[in-house]
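for the writeup, i need someone to sanity check this before i put it in the appendix. the sequnce is what the collaborator sent (i think, or maybe the updated version? ugh). structure was predicted straight from it, no edits. if anything looks off just tell me and ill rerun, i have time this weekend
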Amino acid sequence: MFNYIKASFRRKIARRITREYPPKIDTYHFKDFGPVEFANWTNPLTSPIPLNEDMIAFFKQFIKNGDLVIDIGANIGDTTVPMALCAGTSGLALGFDPNPYVFKILQTNASLNKDKTNIAPQPYAISQQEEEFYFISSEASFGNGGISPTPDSKHGKFVYPQKIKGVNLNKFLKENYNEWIPKFSFIKIDTEGYDKEIIKSISDLLTACKPTVVAESFGKASDEAKMELYEVIEQLGYDIFYFGDFNIKAPVVKLNDKKEMIHYRNTINVYAVPKK
């Protein structure tokens, strides 16, 4: 009972008072990689995320050693790290997240496992053009949130005091990682309903490189927005699949029509592979 009361008090504080919460590093043992360290965030409003073999096997379907992989909306790196393990030290994983508090945990994960991964964390949002945004959260610990051009936003009332930067992904890659573009094989996008706009902004890149695309269909989005997400991806020459989780054993269902997207009322993930 005492521990429950203590945890409840910590959650109340996290909702009302802004402070930083440090990482907690655990070690996992995987048959293909040996010991792997992973940092979770000790924010009382977030739950620890474990790594496991089935998660890594999911990404291994699509990623091989030496690939460029990109994680937009990387959060603490719970998908970035498995992606980077599959790409290896000869590959490169770019993890983008504009949340200044969660980005520090992503940086910690990028600093671990240097003998197994090559992760370059990026503190940016992805936007149509280079611009600045406010990062806003519904609670003081910034465990959630999103970007806004103004400090008044549906995301909440807690506003990070400094603006964060938005970059155009095509331009960013050409200026900083141009030699890696031919190796681009996989991109995961998780941006609270903004996914289709990012896909539109990088359509030329997707057409040229044909990476596997993972995107989120946001549960609160309109039916029209969910169907548009399907159309935007399908028109680039992709087959689209619903999958239950980042787990090789999770169910996978091919989606043959945009209307199938609205069968799922909650937030779901889809992956898309080039049509044969």
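The chain has one domain: 2-274. The CA atoms of residues 128 and 197 lie 8 Å apart.
thx in advance!!
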